[in-house]
Amino acid sequence: MADQKYSNRDIKQQKQMNFPIKVALIGFFGGLFWSLIGYFSYYFSFTKIGPAFVLMPWALGEWKTGHLGQVLGVLVLAILSIAVAFLYKFCFQKINSMWVGVGVGILLWIIVFYIINPFVPQLKPVQSYDWHTLVTSLCLYVLYGLFIGYSISYEYAEQKY
Q1: Highest mean pLDDT among 45-54, 55-64, 117-126
Q2: What local confidence, expressed as pLDDT, does residue 17 receive?
Q3: What is the chain's mean pLDDT, rounded?
Q4: Which pLDDT value is given to residue 15?
Q5: How many structural domains compose the chain?
Q6: Do 141 and 149 meet the contact criterion of CB atoms below 8 Å apart?
Q7: Does the residue 115 lie in any domain?
Q8: Domain-embedded: residue 12
Q9: Range 154-160, long-range pairs (CB < 8 A, 24+ positions)
Q10: Has residue 14 been placed in a domain?
């Protein structure tokens, strides 16, 4: 009877996914979900910046501001989010607090709106956006950081125990 119980636990451990695969999936689906929410926010005019902003420095033409550009922007952000998830994993995986994820979201917002913004000529300076755009985008980044951070920290704690 004890051998049967041990073998069931052993089988469960073998069926678990590796932690790096979980981190990649968390990053991809977190980026996909929150950039889709960002697209809906853009579509319903809560913000003037849609997911296609990631394509602006590289893609030519007006197609990138339409539906196709926004959908491709969502996919690109989902893929880039995998790198953000691994960066979070390497820096903060052991800290099981929601505030670290919130801080990472705020840091990402600052990086996009203050550091990367001057290098993308199609984006206006931060001061020229209305409050709706700034608050909505900040909230989306904070929720994205919270999702990535807390999910990775939770999975790390689950893997450890």
Answers
A1: 45-54
A2: 76
A3: 89
A4: 58
A5: 1
A6: no
A7: yes
A8: no
A9: 154/96, 155/19, 155/22, 155/23, 155/26, 156/19, 156/89, 156/93, 156/94, 156/96, 157/96, 159/16, 159/19
A10: no
